[in-house]
């Protein structure tokens, strides 16, 4: 077997608590499908037959009852439950399932919605025998007004600095702004090997990683690494250029591997070498590389890859859809773009829509909806089993499952969570209505988060 | 009857035919004559073009008499002459005889000899022309000396839709995706595949590849992206991947390893040849492995068989590549003397090895590296040589005639040595050999024996490889002139990979069997085959 897929669906959605305090993030409806359906669909389309899903018990229960998950997903899902409050990072979760990992692993986050050709990332991983291959995308600004936010306040997101080489494929440098207190410093060894580096800040990390099996074993030994994105990836990127990895004394290290020292000192170079490069020393492979007249760089006297055995690659996409749904703005954007990914009819066949309803072509109506006369639904998503009474105007909004909207309401640019009831004649602009909330009739709510 | 060779036949054949239709048995004489006639017919067919038509007529006239004499002797005295004319019509001659001849035959006594001669000549020409026009299969005479017609390999018949259909069917059966050709192909090379590097075969494969072993997928990717390039490197990487396949292989129940493993390897080989056409050295390596696998005795246990195969592969690489390189280096060093100026072309792993070894032996020489676009492999050769401390000069192939007066020897690497002594190597090699010959500079080709191949080729068109045409596009000062070459209807980009050098330009071939002239390659091949 070549690759095993692991879906990380235990995240809490800490940046959109208004939506996730009742519904766990993996089950948030986007385009009337649960959020985790999208990465699962991506894996299924590409040809995976089994996925290990790491999630919480609550999500597992919801998965079992959700019709979309049961019918549409044909792969075998191996669900591993972890504690919700365990404060487990993604790397901790990988360590938890180390026994199940038998080959190289493809880690996907549950909040990734993309239509990227996955073979581009995996080809980098295969062709260059890389230790890490990841996916990034040139981000775009969210232009929609986020409900609940007063005014266009842009949160100062911590930027990521990503350094790539001239071909745009090899990952040379990765750091978050938070870690760079006194400026961005680049080691001389990197500059000597790669004199031309492009540093980009506007990239969105898709949280899709191809990792060698040796990395999972390494994680098992180094228990202090808890997050893949936050700690493991920068560590691997730095390790590409560390002096010890390039030392030719690999044979000696292989002998030392047998001595299991018990110190929990994480970054001990000796053990890292052996763990991260056991299979690299293959005599035939080396012979082939020596005889091959290919080099990945030119201008200096070193061989291909500068003799380095640990390589990290990144595939950056410019076009196409790739968004991570971890903030409210991203959620709204995803709802707008996600339906383009699949060719299902916008209106579910079981929905009952009266003829005198004006429905835009970019709206999605879920199953068992009931839309009455004289309503206008434009650029919106209606969840399953939603009831919309007469003379309602819904524009630019996301309405989840089981919502009841009484007559004469005017809803604009809002997000209304499941099982809410909007009273008669209410006027909502740029609001967020939480689960099961009630809006009084004739209420006027502007830019307000109406939650418990 | 117009054919000279057939004139003997119709007479007796009519007899026989008549006899058969009348239900009488053929006598011994008749059978013997039939056999003799058949042999003669074969011989006469070959001499057909030389024999004049009047000879045929003479024969015909002569034949009529003995036939008519023989007829009453064998059969009840039916009128042979009268029966001849009508039975001449359905003459069961093996060569198609046009029916138009019969009215002429009937008129025969009326016309003069000259007229008949002319008529017969015309008929012969017509028949010859029609035979050549029709692509009927020549009936293979039951003669063991005639060679079997060899089938052309698929990869040089890309413009034949029938062959393409067969290939598509074969790939479908093996569950391997078909790689589509890319871009406009220059008409002279439209019989070859041309692929784009931006459309790898993995696009159409499922990501955790189940049909094809992951090591083979990785290898195919490395081939198509050029990460593993060069004849030796490709063979070694191929054998390494096969080792992994063998390690992960388990014999299914009720199957024999010797037969099943060979069948398992076939789709992998198809996949690799779709990624990049196989080289001659790879072909020989595959033949060797297949032979080793099928030679495994059936009572051998799986573990032992696998171990044996793995050690066979290691042995092959050791012998044919590593030791051969050492032997060739040893012989070549005798040819390099102090003060030599050696010209090399491109990046040949073997030539680089030789030069490094010679440098270790403290011979004082310098190297001129000749390079060519679009591959620019010479830069890699330059790096390797300079790293060792050898003093080098670097030129592009356009300057080769300028630099040749300085050169004392030319060392070339080879991709394959063909059975007629031609050297197949990177495109540009034959140019270098030609110019060197013009300047009377000795050309030495270094090649291991496992690259010798039984193919025969005299030009670079018939069998070659077309690389991605987009490699020719280059950006200088921010401008890419050829960016939209596909939109210009009269423009085609050609990126050839190999060319063949005739043996007249090569002075010596240095192999692990010694230093041989180019024309001794078929001898080596023959000896190799006898050994195996």
TrEMBL record, chain A:
This is Translation initiation factor eIF2B subunit gamma. Residues 350-442 form the EIF2B subunit epsilon/gamma LbH domain. SUPFAM superfamilies: Nucleotide-diphospho-sugar transferases. One of its GO terms (biological process) is cytoplasmic translational initiation. GO terms for cellular component: cytosol; eukaryotic translation initiation factor 2B complex. Its main location: cytoplasm. Gene3D superfamilies: Hexapeptide repeat proteins (2.160.10.10), Spore Coat Polysaccharide Biosynthesis Protein SpsA, Chain A (3.90.550.10). Belongs to the eIF-2B gamma/epsilon subunits family. It comes from the Eukaryota. The keyword Protein biosynthesis applies. The lineage of its organism: Eukaryota, Metazoa, Chordata, Craniata, Vertebrata. Keywords: Cytoplasm, Initiation factor, Protein biosynthesis. GO terms for molecular function: guanyl-nucleotide exchange factor activity; translation initiation factor activity. It is found in: Cytoplasm, Cytosol. Residues 256-270 have a biased composition (Polar residues). It holds the Pfam family LbH_EIF2B. The gene is eif2b3. Residues 246-270 are annotated as: Disordered. Acts as a component of the translation initiation factor 2B (eIF2B) complex, which catalyzes the exchange of GDP for GTP on the eukaryotic initiation factor 2 (eIF2) complex gamma subunit. Its guanine nucleotide exchange factor activity is repressed when bound to eIF2 complex phosphorylated on the alpha subunit, thereby limiting the amount of methionyl-initiator methionine tRNA available to the ribosome and consequently global translation is repressed. The keyword Membrane does not apply. Component of the translation initiation factor 2B (eIF2B) complex which is a heterodecamer of two sets of five different subunits: alpha, beta, gamma, delta and epsilon. Subunits alpha, beta and delta comprise a regulatory subcomplex and subunits epsilon and gamma comprise a catalytic subcomplex. Within the complex, the hexameric regulatory complex resides at the center, with the two heterodimeric catalytic subcomplexes bound on opposite sides. Residues 5-136 form the Nucleotidyl transferase domain.
Automatic annotation (TrEMBL), chain B:
Residues 1-145 are annotated as: Disordered. Residues 10-32, 46-66, 108-130 have a biased composition (Basic and acidic residues). Residues 33-45 have a biased composition (Basic residues). It is found in: Cytoplasm, Cytosol. GO terms for molecular function: guanyl-nucleotide exchange factor activity; translation initiation factor activity. Keywords: Cytoplasm, Initiation factor, Protein biosynthesis. Its main location: cytoplasm. InterPro entries: IF-2B-related, IF_2B-like_C, NagB/RpiA_transferase-like. The keyword Transferase does not apply. It holds the Pfam family IF-2B. GO terms for cellular component: cytosol; eukaryotic translation initiation factor 2B complex. GO terms for biological process: animal organ development; central nervous system development. Belongs to the eIF-2B alpha/beta/delta subunits family. Component of the translation initiation factor 2B (eIF2B) complex which is a heterodecamer of two sets of five different subunits: alpha, beta, gamma, delta and epsilon. Subunits alpha, beta and delta comprise a regulatory subcomplex and subunits epsilon and gamma comprise a catalytic subcomplex. Within the complex, the hexameric regulatory complex resides at the center, with the two heterodimeric catalytic subcomplexes bound on opposite sides. Acts as a component of the translation initiation factor 2B (eIF2B) complex, which catalyzes the exchange of GDP for GTP on eukaryotic initiation factor 2 (eIF2) gamma subunit. Its guanine nucleotide exchange factor activity is repressed when bound to eIF2 complex phosphorylated on the alpha subunit, thereby limiting the amount of methionyl-initiator methionine tRNA available to the ribosome and consequently global translation is repressed. This is Translation initiation factor eIF2B subunit delta. The gene is eif2b4.
């Amino acid at each position: 077997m070549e690759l095993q897929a692991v879906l990380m669906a235990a995240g809490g959605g800490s940046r959109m608590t208004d939506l996730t305090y009742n519904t766990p993030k993996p089950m948030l409806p986007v385009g009337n499908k649960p959020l985790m359906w999208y990465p699962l669909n991506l894996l299924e389309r590409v040809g995976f037959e089994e996925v290990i899903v790491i999630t919480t018990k609550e999500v597992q229960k919801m998965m079992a009852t959700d019709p979309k998950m049961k019918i549409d997903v044909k792969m075998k899902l191996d669900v591993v439950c972890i504690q919700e409050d365990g404060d487990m990072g993604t790397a901790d979760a990988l360590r938890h399932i180390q026994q199940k990992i038998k080959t190289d692993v493809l880690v996907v986050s549950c909040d990734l919605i993309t239509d990227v050709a996955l073979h581009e990332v995996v080809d980098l991983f295969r062709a260059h025998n890389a230790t890490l291959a990841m996916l990034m995308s040139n981000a775009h600004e969210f232009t929609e007004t986020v409900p609940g936010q007063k005014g266009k306040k842009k949160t100062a997101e911590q930027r990521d600095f990503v350094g790539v080489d001239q071909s745009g494929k090899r990952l040379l440098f990765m750091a978050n702004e938070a870690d760079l207190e006194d400026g961005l410093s680049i080691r001389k060894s990197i500059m000597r090997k790669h004199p031309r580096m492009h540093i980009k800040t506007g990239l969105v990390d898709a949280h899709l990683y191809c990792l060698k099996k040796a990395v999972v074993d390494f994680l098992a030994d180094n228990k202090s690494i808890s997050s893949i994105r936050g700690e493991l990836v920068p560590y691997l990127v730095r390790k590409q250029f560390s002096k010890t990895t390039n030392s030719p004394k690999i044979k000696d290290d292989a002998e030392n591997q047998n001595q299991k020292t018990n110190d929990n000192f994480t970054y001990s170079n000796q053990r890292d070498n052996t763990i991260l490069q056991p299979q690299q020393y293959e005599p035939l492979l080396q012979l082939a590389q020596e005889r091959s007249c290919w080099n990945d760089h030119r201008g200096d006297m070193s061989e291909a890859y500068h003799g380095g055995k640990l390589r990290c690659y990144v595939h950056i996409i410019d076009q196409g859809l790739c968004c991570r749904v971890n903030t409210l703005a991203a959620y709204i954007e995803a709802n707008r773009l996600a339906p383009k990914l699949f060719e299902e009819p916008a209106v579910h066949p079981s929905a009952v829509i009266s003829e005198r309803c004006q429905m835009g072509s970019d709206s999605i109506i879920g199953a068992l909806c009931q839309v009455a006369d004289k309503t206008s639904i434009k650029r919106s998503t209606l969840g399953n089993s939603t009831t919309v009474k007469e003379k309602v105007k819904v524009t630019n909004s996301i309405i989840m499952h089981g919502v009841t909207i009484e007559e004469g309401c005017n809803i604009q640019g809002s997000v209304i969570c499941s099982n809410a009831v909007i009273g008669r004649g209410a006027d909502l602009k740029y609001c967020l209505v939480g689960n099961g909330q009630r809006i009084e009739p004739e209420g006027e709510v502007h830019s307000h988060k109406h939650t418990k | 009857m117009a054919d000279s060779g057939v004139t003997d036949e119709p007479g007796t054949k009519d007899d026989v035919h008549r006899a058969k239709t009348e239900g009488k048995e053929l006598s011994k004489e008749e059978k013997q004559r039939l056999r003799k006639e058949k042999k003669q017919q074969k011989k006469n067919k070959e001499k057909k073009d030389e024999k004049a038509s009047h000879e045929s007529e003479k024969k015909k006239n002569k034949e009529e008499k003995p036939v008519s004499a023989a007829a009453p002797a064998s059969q009840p005295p039916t009128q042979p002459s009268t029966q001849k004319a009508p039975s001449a019509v359905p003459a069961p001659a093996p060569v198609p005889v046009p029916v138009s001849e019969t009215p002429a035959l009937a008129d025969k006594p009326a016309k003069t000899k000259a007229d008949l001669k002319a008529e017969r000549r015309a008929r012969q020409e017509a028949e010859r022309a029609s035979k050549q026009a029709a692509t009927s299969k020549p009936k293979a005479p039951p003669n063991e000396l005639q060679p079997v017609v060899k089938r052309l390999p698929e990869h040089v018949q890309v413009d034949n839709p029938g062959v393409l259909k067969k290939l598509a069917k074969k790939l479908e059966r093996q569950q391997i995706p078909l790689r589509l050709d890319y871009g406009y192909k220059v008409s002279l090379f439209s019989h070859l595949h041309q692929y784009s590097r931006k459309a790898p075969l993995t696009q159409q494969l499922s990501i955790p590849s189940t049909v094809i072993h992951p090591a083979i997928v990785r290898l195919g990717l490395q081939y198509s992206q050029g990460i593993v390039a060069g004849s030796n490197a490709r063979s070694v990487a191929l054998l390494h991947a096969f080792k992994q396949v063998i390690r992960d292989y388990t014999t299914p129940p009720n199957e024999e390893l010797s037969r099943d493993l060979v069948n398992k390897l076939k789709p992998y080989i198809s996949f690799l040849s779709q990624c990049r056409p196989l080289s001659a050295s790879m072909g020989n390596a595959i033949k060797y492995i297949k032979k080793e696998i099928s030679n495994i005795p059936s009572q051998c246990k799986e573990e032992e068989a696998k171990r044996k195969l793995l050690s066979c592969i290691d042995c092959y690489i050791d012998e044919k590549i590593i030791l051969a390189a050492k032997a060739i280096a040893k012989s070549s060093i005798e040819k390099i003397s102090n003060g030599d100026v050696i010209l090399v072309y491109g990046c040949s792993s073997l030539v680089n090895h030789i030069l490094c070894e010679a440098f270790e032996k403290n011979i004082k020489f310098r190297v001129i590296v000749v390079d060519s676009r679009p591959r620019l492999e010479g830069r890699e050769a330059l790096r390797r040589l300079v790293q060792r401390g050898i003093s080098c000069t670097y030129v592009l192939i356009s300057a080769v005639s300028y630099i040749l007066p300085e050169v004392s020897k030319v060392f070339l690497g080879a991709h394959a040595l063909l059975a007629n002594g031609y050297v197949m190597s990177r495109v540009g090699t034959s140019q270098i050999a030609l110019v060197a010959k013009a300047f009377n500079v000795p050309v030495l080709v270094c090649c291991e024996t496992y690259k010798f191949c039984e193919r025969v080729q005299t030009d670079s068109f018939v069998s070659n490889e077309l690389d991605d045409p987009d490699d020719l596009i280059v950006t200088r000062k921010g401008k890419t002139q050829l960016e939209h070459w596909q939109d210009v209807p009269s423009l085609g980009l050609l990126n050839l990979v190999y060319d063949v050098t005739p043996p007249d330009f090569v002075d010596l071939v240095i192999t692990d069997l010694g230093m041989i002239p180019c024309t001794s390659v078929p001898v080596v091949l023959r000896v190799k085959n006898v050994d195996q």
